[in-house]
Amino acid sequence: MAIRNSATHYGSVAMFLHWTIALLIIINICLGLFLPDLHGGASANPNLFAQWQIHKSIGLTVLSLSVLRVLWRLINPVPPLPATMNAGLKFLARATQFILYVLILAIPLSGWTMASASRLGIATPYFFLFDWPNLPFFNGMDVHARVAAHEQWENIHAALAWSAIVLIPLHVAGALYHQFIRRDDVMKQMLPGSA
Questions:
Q1: What pLDDT, on a 0 to 100 scale, did the predictor assign at position 47?
Q2: Which of 47, 116, 156, 187 could form a disulfide bond with 134, CB atoms 3.0-4.6 angstroms apart?
Q3: Which bin fits 40, alpha (ψ -120 to 50), beta or left (φ > 0)?
Q4: From CA 25, how far away is CA 32, in angstroms rounded?
Q5: In the prediction, which pLDDT does 156 show?
Q6: Class of 12-190 in CATH
Q7: Which phi and psi (to 5°) does residue 193 adopt?
């Protein structure tokens, strides 16, 4: 399998980034939806605190891989959509992909911003291997300003995550539409071993 994209198929780098980011996003959406809020800090529930650090570490991994994915896409044109596909569906497909690219960057970036604004002011223990630093623009803020900023970014993070929860099934439905209704090669372009 080729490393770079071709005119008919995504390369191994694009596939690895696509499927790894997709898996991590699904895991993190589940964690974000089902982990209870961390009221009282780490001392109230150290196990829950650790689980939230895993959520944040996964998010930072998604952010890092997403930056790589965007850069890789800029230097590797994607295979075209089928010429027989109508213009409206092509627009919907490309718009959904563009919005998903924005979300895979914006969701973890808003989470990092929210964590950086936390009144605790502690760095994220990235998978408990090292400390991922906070964004510096909250340094020196008083606790009330930090709490207000944290709440604002928490709302933004949640709205972006809910947007992904809506768009991901649309993206999957589009792939299944190509595979089982149109019976073209669009879905196969992103499947390993189908070149």
A1: 87
A2: 116
A3: left
A4: 10
A5: 98
A6: mainly alpha
A7: 80, 10
Is 1 exposed, middle or buried (CB count within 10 Å of its CB: 0-12, 13-18, 19+)?
Answer: exposed
The tokens for 193 are 């071993």
Helix (H, G, I), strand (E, B) or coil at 132: strand
Q: With beta carbons less than 8 A apart as the criterion, state whether 64 and 108 touch.
A: no
Tokens linked to 134:
């906070």
Angle (deg, nearest 10), helices 12-34 and 143-176: 120
Non-local CB neighbours of 183 within 8 Å, separated by 6+ positions = none
Compute the distance between CA of residue 36 and CA of residue 44 in angstroms, rounded to an integer: 12
What phi and psi, each to the nearest 5 degrees, are found at residue 124? -80, 125
Tokens of 100: 């998903």
- Of 178, 183, 14, 6, nearest in space to 92 by CA: 178
- Residue 60 · residue 124 · CB < 8 Å: yes
Task: Find out whether 82 and 186 touch, Cβ atoms under 8 Å.
Answer: yes
- pLDDT (tens digit, 9 = 90+) per residue, 73-124? 999 999 999 999 999 999 999 999 999 999 999 999 999 999 999 988 889 9
Domain spans of the chain, in order of start: 12-190
CA–CA separation, 117 and 151 (whole Å):
9
